Amino acid sequence: MERMKTQAGRQLSLLKVKKKWLLPASCSFFFVLSVLMTGCFLWQYYLPKLKTGSLGPEVTSAPVRMCPQHPEPVPLAHPLPVLKEALEKVDRILRQALFAPGLAAMSAVVIHNDTVLWTGNFGKKNGSDPASGPPNEYTMYRISSVSKIFPVLMLYRLWEEGTVASLDDPLERYASAFTINNPLGMTSAPQQKSLVDGLEEVGPAPRPSPVTLRRMASQLSGLPRRLRSTSLLWRGSTQEALSLLKDDVLVADPGTRCHYSTLAFSLLAHVLAAHTVQGDYQRWILEKVLEPLGMADTGFDLTPSVRARLAVGFYGSGRPAPLYNLGWYRPSGQMYSTAADLAKLAMVLLGGGPQRLLRPD
Ligand SMILES: *[C@@H]1O[C@H](CO)[C@@H](O)[C@H](O)[C@H]1NC(C)=O
Ligand SMILES: *[C@@H]1O[C@H](CO)[C@@H](O)[C@H](O)[C@H]1NC(C)=O
Q: Which residue ranges does UniProt annotate as crossing the membrane (predicted)?
């Protein structure tokens, strides 16, 4: 007992000694650290300056081409042990992902050129029904923001057809009533703007940076996420949307900053559709994209037969998610589709197979 006490006492005093050292030791440690960090900062600060100086102006004047860039498919020679290994890895990753809360069903397709290489289906089509079977590649899913691909396809197609003169046209060219306040005013750095857009320089004169079609299609428009005082279920018209925007403000100077906007894609879709023969966004998508590509299991309307084939959606909390009708915002998130249909679209966009949606570059 006594020995234990003294041992404890010794340990206590050792601790005290240690504690005495702790303050100066940690002080000197942080001092050395701060000297090191300052040194690194100065080094970093001077390094690029020297570099750009020595490499000359040709580095900064080269135009940056950002989009579209996708890998060219190369022929696959059988057998493919590397591919088999890679697909097993995909399988493992997706199986693992299914543990995330609210994720009850998952379907995946891997394609190469015009061929389906692999399909994976995980979980249950109805996660709250223990007797439910797994989904398959023909199970319907709400594709929410993947729907935003379609207004972009429309923009490119109308540009190819000449309905849209330039991707860099300001929106007001197609919707004369469009105005919005830009508190950030004039563009001060035209060169930076042109780099962001992946274009040649447009000229040195400062001018208000417009909300262009290209910026709307790439989250660079600076438009707010939604129309002021509307929910995603808003049932207004495009005219009403434009009059709401008159009193609204941009959240970023167009072309300078990525800002997620559901409004931008819906506005783009509805405004462009008004310049087509169909006159309606959903009809245009059906006639020009879904029907030609044979995407019969993709659409906007949650009819009883679609609902019957739909995988049940859940919130992160595990509560089943209701099926909303997004009203005016439908182009940004209303669509349903299947893994098989989206694989068809991906094949066409990657240039596999005989079908074309857009002309190659
Ligand atoms: C892609 O598919 C097309 C059409 O079947 C075929 O002609 C072409 O050789 C394929 N390319 C590759 C890289 O497999
Ligand atoms: C999913 O299963 C639950 C429990 O059996 C059931 O109440 C619900 O109606 C099912 N949902 C659908 C869309 O079939």
A: 21-46
**Alpha carbon of 276 to those of 70, 199, 271, 288, 311: distances in Å?**
30, 27, 10, 11, 34
Residue-range domain boundaries for the chain: 81-144+294-349, 164-275
Q: Is 353 in the pocket of ligand 1 (CB under 6 A)?
A: yes
pLDDT in the model for residue 234: 97
Which ligand sits closest to the CA of 112? 1
Contacts from 133-136 at CB under 8 Å and sequence distance 24+?
Answer: 134/105, 135/105, 135/106, 135/107, 135/311, 136/107
Q: Is the CB of 312 under 6 A from ligand 2?
A: yes
pLDDT < 70 stretches in the chain: 1-70, 185-207
Residue 351 Cβ contacting ligand 1 at under 6 Å = no
Q: How far apart are the first and last CA of the chain?
A: 87
List beta partners, residue 337. Answer: 141
Distance between Cα 177 and ligand 1 center (Å): 47
Q: Rounded to an integer, what distance in angstroms lies between the CA atom of residue 86 and that of residue 194?
A: 39
pLDDT value for 101: 84
User: What stretches of the chain adopt beta strand conformation (E)?
Assistant: 105-112, 115-123, 140-142, 336-338
Q: Which atom of ligand 2 is nearest to the CA of 307?
A: 13
Backbone angles phi, psi at 337, to 5 degrees: -165, 180
User: What pLDDT score was predicted for residue 3?
Assistant: 46
**pTM (predicted TM-score):** 0.76
Q: Of 260, 288, 285, whose CA–CA distance to 270 is shortest?
A: 285
Tell me how far apart the alpha carbons of residues 359 and 361 are, in angstroms, rounded to a whole number.
6
Asked if residues 190 and 235 have their Cβ atoms less than 8 Å apart, the reply is no
Q: Is the CB of 129 under 6 A from ligand 2?
A: yes
